[in-house]
Amino acid sequence: MDIEIRKLTPDLAEDYVRFFDEKPHNEKYNTKCYCTGWCSNEPEGVDNSTEEKRRAVAYEYVKAGNLQGYLAYFGGQVVGWCNANTKADCVTCVGWQYVMGAVPTDELIDKKVKSIFCFTIAPGMQRKGIATRLLERVCQDAALEGFQYVEAYPNRVMTAESENFVGYAEMYEKSGFTVYKELENIYVMRKKLRE
User: Fold this and answer.
1) Is the separation of the CB atoms in 153 and 100 below 8 Å?
2) How do residues 71-100 score in pLDDT, each as one tens digit?
3) How far apart are CA 119 and CA 130, in angstroms?
4) What are the pLDDT digits (tens) for 175-186?
5) pTM score > 0.70 for this model?
6) Which terminus of the chain has a smaller tally of CB atoms within 10 A, N or C?
7) Every domain of the chain and the residues it spans
């Protein structure tokens, strides 16, 4: 399968929002998140109350470089997304505060960590290795950008597909990640890139 992975840049903002517009990704909530809760420099008071507002916010975040990650393309169409951002830039974002409150952040003073917050793969394209390809690219670029670790937060217990947007522990293990911390509901997994 000829999958192309592209780093999300401002010129891909329209492709990004179109992917969320057209591809169902959350059967449980029947909403489109546009991944607006996991970004750097998230201003307070942003109204994410409707899909339309989340779409507009996401478009602006991509244009400003606050929403970071990678898009997977097949046949010229986006078929996958991975949100990956600098951990230190995201510890105050809504998603972090809501889901990751117990994840350690002390080490951010002297370590550069890239965090993986979510994967979204188009229906019909799941279980074809696209998330693994996205993960490989995150790790490759993080190493080139001087990060010491890539960190991920998979659920400890398999739940509904809609709850496993963080990726599966097995995928991370196959890619060289190990468990750094065990929390109540999640693993904090890390891949060491350099000293």
Assistant:
1) yes
2) 999 999 999 999 999 998 888 777 777 777
3) 10
4) 999 999 999 889
5) yes
6) C
7) 4-192
Distance, CA of 191 to CA of 193 (rounded, Å): 6
Give 107's strand partners: none
Closest C-alpha among 1, 127, 4, 131 to residue 77: 4
Token pair for residue 145? 């950008």
Q: Which residues contact 105 (CB under 8 A, 6 or more apart)?
A: 87, 88, 91
Beta bridge partners of 83: 69, 118
Which position has the token pair 């929390």?
183
In sequence order, what are the residues at sequence separation of 6 or more whose Cβ sits closer than 8 angstroms to the Cβ of residue 70? 5, 6, 7, 8, 81, 82, 84, 134, 137, 138
The residue written with tokens 């490759």 in the block is 140
Task: Specify whether domain 4-192 bears CATH 3.40.630.30.
Answer: yes
